[in-house]
Amino acid sequence: MKKIIALFIIAFISSSAIAETLIPRSVGGDKGKYYLLESKQNGNTITAIHKRVGVYDTYYTKTETNCSTMKMREIGGSEVSVKDIKPNPTKWFDLVQGSSKSDLANFLCKRK
Fold it and tell me: Going by C-beta distance under 8 Å and a sequence separation of 6 or more, which residues neighbour residue 70?
């Protein structure tokens, strides 16, 4: 009986969906939808995971955003899932107004 309950709990946890918040876009034209999956703030820096659901694929990205300087860097990404994000950090970069990364940074920094 304990094994059945344990299996049920494991199945429930593994099937639980991550909460998703739609990230509003400032310009049209991109057929993808962007969703914030999680974020954590440490001082003026916010580490976030978001996904882009495109017409043909889905991509998961982990970023760090410095809300004081409005610079960002990508920590890693995956075409498979959040747990498959492999670390491959970029250098900090300036954001291009109207880009999906700029929209993400503005969304994150307004929420803090």
Answer: 94, 95, 105, 109
Query: Is residue 10, in this structure, part of any structural domain at all?
Result: no
Q: Which domain holds residue 94?
A: 18-111
What is the pLDDT, as a whole number, of residue 13? 41
Lowest-confidence region among 13-17, 57-61, 71-75: 13-17
For 26, the 3-state DSSP assignment is coil
Does residue 9 belong to any structural domain of this protein?
Answer: no
Structure tokens at 97: 């107004």
Residue with tokens 């307004």: 110
- Count structural domains, the chain: 1
Whether 80 maps to a domain, the answer reads yes
**Residue 50 confidence (pLDDT) above 70:** yes
**How far, in Å, CA of 87 to CA of 30, rounded?**
26
pLDDT band at 17; cut points 50, 70, 90: low
